[in-house]
Design goal:
It comes from Nonomuraea harbinensis. The chain has 151 residues and is an all-alpha fold. It is 66% helix and 0% strand.
């Protein structure tokens, strides 16, 4: 018995390996999985719908229907409380700043490592200078020794 893509049950879709997002062609697999992105408007709409549901199992049904996890709801709610719609949108300037911040941290670590290496080399050079001075002093004292008495 052959079924068309529109009449297949979710179990049939799962078992034949064609589960994917709604915008993918049925039966084809992408070379690489793509991370889903959600607009701030979609997030707000889902949060409002989720909060409005009171019947047992209705929230789970919403999550299954939309292909979401409860962690999405928790994360979106935190973002919404922190900054309303602006908090839900991915802030490219914040991403850019965090990239710049990461580069700044990398450069700071590099400077610290170079300063530590310079301090070690300075200490080694200082030690070599002291050893040279000591050897020079010993050499001078060996030259000025009185001749030993012979009998």
């Amino acid at each position: 018995m052959s079924t068309t893509p529109a009449t297949r049950t979710p179990q049939q879709i799962v078992h034949d390996g064609t589960v994917g997002s709604a915008n993918q062609n049925e039966g084809t697999r992408a070379d690489r999985p793509r991370r889903r992105t959600f607009t701030p408007e979609y997030k707000q709409a889902i949060l409002a719908e989720y909060d409005a549901l009171t019947e047992p199992g209705a929230r789970g049904a919403l999550l299954r229907r939309e292909g979401l996890y409860s962690s999405h709801i928790a994360e979106w709610r935190r973002a919404s409380e922190a900054g309303a719609l602006d908090g839900l949108a991915k802030n490219t300037s914040r991403t850019r700043k965090s990239g710049e911040r990461a580069e700044l941290e990398r450069l700071r670590r590099k400077v610290e490592a170079l300063e530590a290496e310079l301090a070690r080399k300075d200490a080694a050079l200082d030690l070599a200078g002291k050893a040279h001075a000591l050897l020079e002093t010993l050499s001078e004292s060996a030259d000025t020794k009185p001749p030993s008495k012979r009998r």
